[in-house]
Amino acid sequence: MTSTDPDLAGRHALVTGASSGLGADFARELARRGATLTLVARREDRLRSLQGELAGAETGHRPVDVLVNNAGFGLYGPFNTLDWARERAMLELDMIVPVHLTKLFLPGMLERRAGWILNIASIGAYQPSPLYASYSAAKSFVLNFTEALSYELRGSGVTATALSPGIVATEFLQVSGQRATRYQRLAMMDSPAVARIGVEAMLKGRPSLVPGRLNAASVWSNRLLPRRLSAALAHRLMT
Ligand SMILES: NC(=O)c1ccc[n+]([C@@H]2O[C@H](COP(=O)([O-])OP(=O)(O)OC[C@H]3O[C@@H](n4cnc5c(N)ncnc54)[C@H](OP(=O)(O)O)[C@@H]3O)[C@@H](O)[C@H]2O)c1
Question: Model's pTM, two decimal places?
Answer without folding.
Answer: 0.96
